[in-house]
Design a protein that fits this description.
31% helix; globular; alpha/beta; five-stranded mixed β-sheet; 4 helices
Length: 177
């Protein structure tokens, strides 16, 4: 299979970035950025999962996130508290702590020099549920977009990518795919 690497923007990858939460817990993130994002900030897409960025979703991440970054979005893939390389202990599925951590991650992303302040979330399975719960739990949601979350693992990666891109194009006021 040939993987397309020719994108409108060159991509820079940060293999591991620590995001320190208010309680001192560090979450591990992998970030893909358009090379010029610090000079010209871009919208960000967060994928927040318990599935270990280093191995659990690595193959899919290698296709999806560089493609989105190559088309002008910062992509941030974060291991949830107590999962993968992140510190801490996961309390339960979809626990209030999970949503609180996600909001801190969103605020961290919005404060980065490469982020325009526009954010969205995407995901499949658990990630989709987290993305769908985000707007209800976010007290500052007026400055953020709606989540884009294909809800099934049966969706092939390229379709997930296209679905996310179409949602982002609509959100940005552009013609849909």
């Amino acid at each position: 299979m040939k993987i397309k690497q020719d994108f409108p923007h060159r991509v820079r990858e940060i293999e591991n970035q620590w995001i320190t939460l208010a309680d001192g817990t560090r979450l591990a993130a992998r970030i893909w950025l358009p090379k010029n994002a610090e000079a010209a900030p871009v919208p960000a897409i967060l994928e927040y999962l318990p599935y270990r960025k280093r191995d659990g979703t690595a193959a899919r991440d290698e296709l999806t996130h560089p493609w989105l970054a190559g088309h002008g979005y910062a992509c941030v893939r974060v291991d949830m508290r107590g999962n993968g390389e992140s510190d801490g202990l996961m309390e339960d599925e979809y626990a209030p702590q999970e949503q609180a951590d996600a909001l801190e991650v969103i605020d961290w992303i919005a404060a980065q020099p490469w982020c325009s302040g526009k954010l969205g979330m995407m995901g499949i399975s658990w990630g989709a549920s987290t993305a769908c719960n985000w707007p209800r739990s976010d007290p500052n949601r007026s400055r953020r977009s709606s989540p884009c979350a294909p809800p099934t693992t049966a969706t092939p990666t390229i379709s997930t990518t296209r679905a996310a891109t179409c949602c982002w194009r609509i959100w940005a006021g552009r013609r849909p795919c």
